[in-house]
Amino acid sequence: MATPSSTTVLVTGGSGFIGSYVILDLLSQGYTVRTTIRDLSRSTSVITSLTNGGATCEQALRACWFARLFVRVRNAYQLPSGSPASLGRLTFSAASLDHDDGWAEAVQGCTYVHHVASPFPAELPKHEDDLIIPAREGTLRVLKAAAAAGVK
Description:
The protein is α/β, with parallel strands linked by helices. It is about 45% helix and about 15% strand.
């Protein structure tokens, strides 16, 4: 069985509220983590967020309409902040759930995938398909790339 130190895990949605906590948890266990973000120029802000213990409640409240649930989760489970040493095991890959580009590269060499990204609108969608269809299509992109790369 592979040890955490020899295992790379892809976490989709690294700039998101849930993704940041999944990354911190995996790093604290010794895993090497690759995360996807749509724009690599945001990697600095993601590292800053992780250094400070993950995405803040305020960031989540600005980001989505269902953030009150995540505020309760954050308050219930405090994870350690990312140390400079553990953040050295974090890399970034550009990929968007809206496009096929980047997913093959993102999953390459990964043993596992934690898919926690979702194309989530800032406002409540007028129709459920405005949320469900993009999330489904994005999930299928991740799953197809993972299967093609032999991810467990």
